Amino acid sequence: MTDSKEIQFSKKRTWSHDLPISYLMQQGVENPGVLSLAAGLVDQNSLPVSITKSAFDSLFSDPGSARESLQYGTTAGSLSLRKLLLTHLTNLEQKSAEELGMTVDNFIVTTGSQQYLSLLGEVLLDPGDICLVAAPTYFVFLGVLQGLGARIISVETDESGMRMDSLDATLESLEAQGQLNRVKLIYLVSDYENPSGISLSIERRKQVVEVAQKWSKQHRIHILEDLAYRELCYDGPVLPSIRSFDQTGETVILTQTFSKSFAPGLRVGFGVASKRVCEAISDKKGNDDFGSTNMSQHILANALRENLYYDHVEYLRSVYREKRDCMLDAAEMYFSKLKDVHWIHPGGGLYVWMTLPDSIETGFQSSLFQKAIHEDKVMYVPGELCYAYDHWLGCNEQPAIQKNHMRLTFGVQNTQGIQEGMKRLANAVKSYL
Amino acid sequence: MTDSKEIQFSKKRTWSHDLPISYLMQQGVENPGVLSLAAGLVDQNSLPVSITKSAFDSLFSDPGSARESLQYGTTAGSLSLRKLLLTHLTNLEQKSAEELGMTVDNFIVTTGSQQYLSLLGEVLLDPGDICLVAAPTYFVFLGVLQGLGARIISVETDESGMRMDSLDATLESLEAQGQLNRVKLIYLVSDYENPSGISLSIERRKQVVEVAQKWSKQHRIHILEDLAYRELCYDGPVLPSIRSFDQTGETVILTQTFSKSFAPGLRVGFGVASKRVCEAISDKKGNDDFGSTNMSQHILANALRENLYYDHVEYLRSVYREKRDCMLDAAEMYFSKLKDVHWIHPGGGLYVWMTLPDSIETGFQSSLFQKAIHEDKVMYVPGELCYAYDHWLGCNEQPAIQKNHMRLTFGVQNTQGIQEGMKRLANAVKSYL
User: Fold this and answer.
1) What's the gap in Å between the CA of B319 and the closest CA on chain A?
2) Would you call the peptide bond into B20 cis, given omega within 30 degrees of 0 as the criterion?
3) Which of A124, A265, A274 lies at the smallest CB-CB distance from B71?
4) Which fold has domain B50-308?
5) How far apart are the C-alpha atoms of A124 and A186, rounded to whole Å?
6) Four-CA torsion B282, B286, B287, B289, nearest 10 degrees
7) Per-residue b/e over B396-407, b at no fewer than 16 CB within 10 Å?
8) Residue pLDDT, tens place only, B75-125
9) Which residues form the Aminotransferase class I/classII large domain (chains A, B) (predicted)?
10) Is the sign of the CA dihedral B111, B113, B116, B117 positive or negative?
11) Residue B109's beta-bridge partner residues?
């Protein structure tokens, strides 16, 4: 009898090893004095304590509704919440449910929108299937794709988001290589993309639906639209989604979350998809957890029903607007005189994307990152994590991984922390110029 | 341009089609007058309304702890909760953490224990890998295995749970067929198995660790111990787990939930595994949702810390004991004169497993099921759903699927509903004798 045998993990387990998020979190833990402009948390002080308490109290003032929230829910999520989500979405789009071609049955509530992204990947992607993404894009979703064994192909991006001519050319090239049948998804963070802060222009939101449909020759190529930052808009109204330009709802799968606009600790997100995609997600989610936390859903439903949520979003916009302006002011103050350093002014979201001269690398192993964390006591997310590169496709077909960017967030620090962090970061950068 | 293309789902999506749980839930929805002895919900009236309110109020009385619960948590779950879980588990086992060979780092909090079961399957099982299960066993986990493309092989079971001689013989037979290298897991619901109500004897709990280690020739064969019903014991103390007989903790992976013993709407479960298995689960969970609902975890931590939880479990035992006795009394009253009908007296859990004469089938398509639901207005879970059968292995090697059982639950109905349901069910059965 032996008790020293090796574990034989599944093949897919080996694909989700060494994710950068783990390394980042570990750095945060190991270097407690470091001021983080990296952490993807939300602003601590503006979390909706009194609103949540009020919504909870209202829920628990009636034993019947309290018990309902403590019992199992359904896999797709609370029906009363899903009805409110439909209203919420039609308000955001300023279109009726009919115009949008959706009913409550198209909605599934998940553990943050992250779970929706993951479930969608599970039901659509086999190992070797292809997902097209912007360069740069949300690096945690790149980890999800990697964990599924999918091929990730980057598409060139400019100040209006993913370029439609590049997308079209990439699909054409894939067809020429006999790979079009492996393309399943185009992933887009339409509003204030994490990490770049760029929004996809309205014109391209229309175009991308047409491009996806044009290349859906052998099977449907879906667009997965991630609207995590949608409601955190600081300079203008909420933008219409890509989904709003897809009248049948057969091409675009939309996902949103209340993690950024309300409270991540409730873990409530949702997605909207066609009936067949919903069935697939629901079957997988039924196996995975039978449904997300029911009590959170009931609390959020009360906050939405009583308009507490909407007041909070207004308040949050003012909080984050101030913090964004603070970071941009600090960038101006500490970085504007540094040669070939520039950054994007985001109209919403939580991130400022900063570009250093080509010669300065920002990755985990770079001397800049190591100096910043150990000497200057400040941390950022290396931009290279946000680029995918498909080695099979080769270097002429897709944008190269860029190694001279930093993702800076104004989400978690207060204005003082933002200023101090930017000052420290400028110090670190200066020594490499 | 076309907009009518078929969706090409992933291969694994096709494996999780048509799960019986969906059919059961649909029957419940479509037949609202039906009295359900099938639904896997918990008793509605004993849900911990005032305890949850008290735990929430305590959490929200301090803005700092309130905010912490509304912020993102960590993928592995709240550290303060995991510390309490370690204490909780050592109390249940009546052994120290050292004796059990575990620390908080071995704990991962999940969305119910269901998510733990699913994650564990994901990180260990490739399509074609083998999991050994009792006959009968928890049918939702069979769905999880099916969704992963795993082979499920049944092992003979008697009134003391899975037979160790049969388990040993099955492994020997698999080795002879050159399939031992595909065996990854032995799945066991040790206490008051869903559906049979049978507990694995203490002797076999020791033996199964030895059997798993004996056959871990090429790689480690893990035992996945599902203790969902552990604390719902009505006739004696909590039993020591299989895990408690695995001193190094390298062989047994244990999972528990607060869905049955507290409130499923919080969706808090957890698992305990070796460091390497924890890393694998954590990586997958990081991609899937970054962590389960943080607020639920903080509420439960308060309930555990202030001993409110333990009082509630005592109370629940008395509630369910009465309901179990009610169902057994009703079985005696309505079924004892029916020839060749017998049932198991469970010492805990939520289920009574009833056996009809061999000639009476109970499946969804059987005339008994259809008559019960449409004429007698009562619903049960057909026993055959709880049996796996591996067609590759063949019929001589494993117990056949038995088609003459019913899983009856006393969880959701009150005593009046239980009596009425059993009366209706006896009526349905009688017409086939």
Assistant:
1) 16
2) no
3) A265
4) Aspartate Aminotransferase; domain 2 (3.40.640)
5) 12
6) 120
7) ebbbebbbbbbb
8) 999 999 999 999 999 999 999 999 999 999 999 999 999 999 999 999 999
9) 57-410
10) negative
11) B270
Provide the pLDDT for residue B1. 42
Q: Measure A228 CA to nearest chain B CA, in Å.
A: 14
Q: How far apart are CA B147 and CA B112, in angstroms?
A: 19
DSSP A274-330: -HHHHHHHHHHHHHHTSSS-HHHHHHHHHHHHTTHHHHHHHHHHHHHHHHHHHHHHH
A392 pLDDT more than 80: no
Q: Which two tokens stand for residue B31?
A: 């037949």
**CA dist B182 → B125, B187, B217 (Å):** 9, 15, 12
Integer angstrom CA distances of residue A42 from A3, A303, A317: 45, 19, 12
A74 contact residues in B (CB cutoff 8 A): 25
User: Confidence band (pLDDT; 50, 70, 90) for B396?
Assistant: low
Average pLDDT, chain A: 94
Q: Could A284 and B16 be called an inter-chain contact, meaning their C-beta atoms sit closer than 8 Å?
A: yes
Q: Where are chain A's structural domains?
A: 14-47+311-430, 50-306
Element (H, E) at A342: strand A342-343
pLDDT at A395 over 60: no
Instruction: State the pLDDT confidence band at B25, using cuts at 50, 70 and 90.
Output: confident
What is the token pair recorded at A238?
A: 């909420």
- What's the topology of domain A50-306? Aspartate Aminotransferase; domain 2 (3.40.640)
User: Smallest Cα–Cα separation from B262: which of B298, B306, B315?
Assistant: B315
**For the segment B311-344, what is each residue's pLDDT rounded down to a tens digit?**
999 999 999 999 999 999 999 999 999 999 999 9
Going by the DSSP 8-state scheme, the letter that residue A366 receives in this structure is S
- What CATH number does domain B11-47+311-430 carry, 3.40.50.620, 2.60.40.730, 3.30.1300.10, 3.90.1150.10? 3.90.1150.10
ipTM value of the model?
Answer: 0.95
B interface mutation test: which of A1, A4, A6, A9 has the most B CBs within 10 A? A9
pLDDT at position A14: 87
Strand (E) or helix (H) holding B262: none
Task: Name the closest residue on chain B to residue A140, using Cα atoms.
Answer: B287
Q: Hey, what's the torsion of the CAs at A127, A129, A135, A136, to 10 degrees? A: -40
For residue B2, the model assigns a pLDDT of 45
- Residues of B within 8 A of A68 (CB-CB) are 265
Per-state percent for chain A, helix, strand, coil, to nearest 5: 45, 15, 40
Pick from A1, A10, A114: CB nearest B124: A10
Which pLDDT does position B20 carry in this prediction?
A: 78
For the domain spanning A14-47+311-430, the CATH number is 3.90.1150.10
Q: From the list B5, B110, B220, which residue is nearest A6 (CB)? A: B220
What gap in Å lies between CA B258 and CA B310, rounded to an integer? 12
Q: Which residue has the higher pLDDT, A104 or B30?
A: A104
Residue in chain B nearest A47 by alpha carbon: B67
Neighbour tally for A96: CB within 10 Å: 10
Render pLDDT for B168-178 as a digit per residue (tens, 0 to 9): 999 999 999 99
The three-class DSSP label of residue A190 is: coil
